Amino acid sequence: MTEEAQARLRAAEREILARRPEHAIKPTLDRIRALTSLLGDPQHAYPVVHITGTNGKTSTSRMTEALLRARGLRTGLFTSPHLTSIRERICVDGVPLSAQAFADAYQEVAPYAVMVDQAQPVPLSFFEVLTAMAFAVFADAPVDVAVIEVGLGGTWDSTNVADGTVAVVTPVSLDHMAYLGGTIAEIAGNKAGIIKPGSVAVLAQQPVEAAEVLLRRTAEVGATVAREGLEFGVLRRDLAVGGQRIAIRGLRGEYEDLFLPLFGAHQAGNAACALAAVEAFASPPQAAGGAPQPLDGQMVGAAFAAMSSPGRLEVLRRSPLVIADAAHNPSGMAATVAGLAEAFSVTHLIAVVAVSEDKDVPGILDQLEPEASEIVVTRNSSSRSMDAAKLAELAGAVFGPDRVHQAARLDEAIDRAVELADTSDAGDLSAGGLPGGSAVLVTGSVVTAGDARLLLAGPVLPGEPAGPA
Fold first, then answer.
1. N or C terminus: which one in the chain shows less Cβ crowding within 10 Å?
2. Closest Cα to residue 167, out of 208, 216, 203?
3. Which residues of the chain have pLDDT under 70?
């Protein structure tokens, strides 16, 4: 990255970050519609696979994009939030925008954003500007298909000015209740807004109350539904070195002996949803004209074998084992704990936790407590991060004060957790046990996982080769 490109990127970031943050929701599509209209409605220049849900959105989006790219299509991918750099959010052909390209995209959109700010009662937000940038970049590329992850909810999310030919809803649970509603049914109703007339709705396994709402929406708009566990799903799943072996029944056939280098049953479910989405995109019902053939099995196998989902049970260091995971609500933490217990032989788990102030922190800690021997609480780099002393008080009520440690910064917390893990391993050895049974899990937020990744793995972005950007 040249100094000039870096300076332009930082200037663009400062201006974008000065806007209303993405968690400060003002629900309307008027602002983003005004902006995309001035840009020529770039979101209509290519077909879209639109993905929402409570947990698993980013992993499913990455898998869907990888499968589409493996089929020889030029792809756009828009995800949020980012782990280490804002550039990660907008990818073309699986690679984040370079610093130069990101700054250029912002400069293209910025004058129109000012016009919208002047005309609207509320200025455009951070996320609305990024959404418009992604739409414009994908149209300019041009891409053959864009995979668009919803930022929050669905109906009023700025990405919803695009009309997905395929809409994917990953598992729905309680999160962001202040914005989306206090029940699973209300949250599902908001997320159902991305299911458009004539589309294919790919639905992960859902709680009954969410499934009822989503199915009602598909009927109301005349969408075709594909449900995990009925029309498609995971047939078999076995542990493998570095991941798992899975067999998937798709919408167009069965796919055997797929190696997925990701951990946990939830990732297998995400993979099944991604495969069904790509099958639906490849052969929409109205164009099928007969029984469609399965996708090329070798292509599917190669695409799955190369998949990654940074910050999701990601091994950052060994001896002791340090894993980062972005779980930030109780259902996400339950999936993380189950995946960790299944895939790693851990006798002593030291958890490092930094979490946003507005989350269900007691619920998150309740899911983590049975697996973790001790917990080190701290803050991450976000201004929304809960104060470490307050988090320590909440953790003490769940873990007991003797199992709770506190650190002012994440790097100090990780160092402390590593010391605790080393001490546990030394104790096991002196007692005649095997070494290497202790591990550190850094979790509680996407920001926490991203900060840990930056500290331990360096500044290389997911999907980006090392070297100049």
1. N
2. 203
3. 1, 22-24, 176-178, 284-291, 428-436, 459-469
Measured between alpha carbons, how far is 38 from 44 in angstroms, rounded to an integer?
13
Task: Give the per-residue pLDDT at 469.
Answer: 47
Q: Which sequence spans correspond to the domains of the chain?
A: 3-305, 314-457
Question: Which pLDDT belongs to residue 373?
Answer: 96
Residue 350 token pair: 């030291």
| pTM, rounded to two decimals | 0.93
Task: Find tokens 């902006």 and name the residue.
Answer: 35
Q: Which CATH superfamily is domain 314-457 in?
A: Mur ligase, C-terminal domain (3.90.190.20)
pLDDT value at position 288?
Answer: 47
Task: Please provide the DSSP assignment of 274-336 as one string.
Answer: HHHHHHHHHS-HHHH-S-PPPPPHHHHHHHHHT---TTSSEEEETTTEEEE----SHHHHHHH
Question: Could you tell me which of 127, 148, 131, 152 has the C-alpha nearest to residue 75?
Answer: 148
- Looking at the domain 3-305, which fold is it? UDP-N-acetylmuramoyl-L-alanine:D-glutamate ligase (3.40.1190)
